[in-house]
Design goal:
- It is a single chain.
- With 402 residues, this protein is an alpha/beta fold.
- The chain is 31% helix and 30% strand.
- The relative contact order is 0.10.
- About 1% of the residues have low confidence.
Length: 402
């Protein structure tokens, strides 16, 4: 028993050294929490300019900051041949170690997006701190650094404000959708092309950087969601806006809720229908060497507004409006597909669907899929149903005299 005691004591001592749980711990006071990351391409030497939006803890307790006059965030930048190198160089300007576990947003400058983003997100898959579920946006007509410098109302952290703006419009309008780092990597490595949400600056950016710009009812500068950037071979080649952008979301089955203005018997687009349910199924087959894209869209909506007299108590009037809703949806989908075919960009994942369902056919057409996609035929069926007319059947407006 005596001989075993020293052995047990030695084992306990060794285990206590090995199992120490806080060997790599970091104090919160030593960290700078990064809420947003912007990546640009420098014009002179082709390096990455990485911008970090860092939280000011003492100024972010309220939406307008505390009374010390500090903005809620501080923005610092560094340049290097690699993103990780720029991250480390930022330590020259930061008083604390950058901490990325709570980063909310990644913004990519348009010039970098047009030069190619294939290897841009490699660090996100390798790092244990950077988040694969961080939303990604393209700064349209500007650099990413300018976007991160704009302060926002309502939200104390500008990056969180941008993310909520994207989530809100994706949920209720349907021209955009949430897109994170992981989904972009899958899109780049998959069969086909992809789209990424665009964000545009409005107003004078120099005004938007000042905290004083928040101390008025109408801000002089801000950001607005702006279309979809279409990528082919990892490069941004053009932008989709309006009906074409929403048509893309129809095809991708990403429309959660949206508004469509349809025509009545008397006026164009004077009836607002809130589509609250949409389901798209897609199948791809090849006939005589030509791909055929079969789409079926089922949607349900509520009439929220009428601009002229329509007797909604009549079944035949509802049927007419449903037909008009189907036609409008079909037009937007056809526009999106034609636009994509004109540039040979399969942003809808039709190639992935064909590869999944018929690998043998894919082996024959996959090598020239861009050309085959551009020659493809669209077979679309839309079923639209108006489930409610709101609180009133007949509008208060008097019917027009014939």
């Amino acid at each position: 028993m005596r001989t075993k005691m020293p052995v047990l004591l030695s084992a306990c001592l060794i285990l206590s050294l090995i199992l120490t749980g806080c060997w790599n711990s970091r104090e919160l006071n030593d960290l700078a929490i990064v809420s947003g990351i912007g990546i640009d391409l420098t014009a002179n030497n082709g390096e990455f300019r990485v911008t970090f939006q860092v939280v000011n803890p003492s100024a972010s307790s309220t939406s307008m900051g505390s009374g010390n006059g500090m903005p809620a965030v501080t923005v610092i930048s560094a340049s290097d041949r690699t993103v990780f190198g720029a991250l480390r160089k930022a330590s020259k300007r930061a008083t604390r170690q950058l901490f990325f576990a709570h980063s909310q947003l990644v913004v990519v400058g348009e010039s970098l997006a047009r030069s190619g983003i294939e290897g841009l997100f490699d660090i996100f898959e390798r790092s244990h701190e950077l988040r694969l579920n961080s939303p990604v946006l393209i700064s349209r007509n500007s650099d990413a650094a300018s976007v991160l410098k704009i302060l926002t109302t309502l939200e104390s952290l500008p990056s969180m404000g941008v993310v909520k703006k994207m989530q809100n419009t994706s949920r209720v309008y349907g021209e955009n959708r949430n897109m994170n780092v992981f989904e972009i990597i899958n899109g780049i490595t998959g069969e086909g092309d992809l789209t990424i949400n665009g964000l545009r600056l409005i107003g004078d950016p120099s005004d938007g950087m000042k905290k004083s710009s928040l101390e008025q009812s109408e801000t002089k500068a801000g950001t607005i969601m702006s279309g979809l950037g279409v990528f082919k071979d990892d490069k941004l080649i053009y932008w989709m806006d309006g009906p074409a952008a929403r048509g893309t979301q129809w095809v991708l089955n990403k429309v959660i809720e949206t508004n469509i203005d349809i025509a009545s018997a008397n006026k164009d687009e004077d009836i607002a229908v809130n589509v609250f349910y949409s389901k798209t199924t897609a199948k791809v087959e090849v006939r005589n060497g030509i791909p055929v894209f079969h789409l079926h869209i089922r949607e349900e909506g509520i009439i929220n507004e009428t601009g002229s007299y329509v007797d909604l108590s009549l079944k035949e009037e509802i049927v007419k409006l449903e037909a008009e809703l189907e036609e409008k949806t079909k037009e937007e989908v056809e526009l999106a597909v034609r636009t994509a075919q004109a540039s040979q960009t399969d942003i809808f994942g039709f190639g992935n669907e064909l590869k999944r369902t018929d690998p043998a056919i894919w082996d024959k057409v996959g090598k020239e899929w861009s050309t085959a996609f551009a020659r493809g035929e669209l077979d679309i069926q839309v079923e639209a149903y108006i489930r409610s007319t709101g609180m009133r059947l007949k509008p208060y407006m008097a019917p027009e005299k014939e």
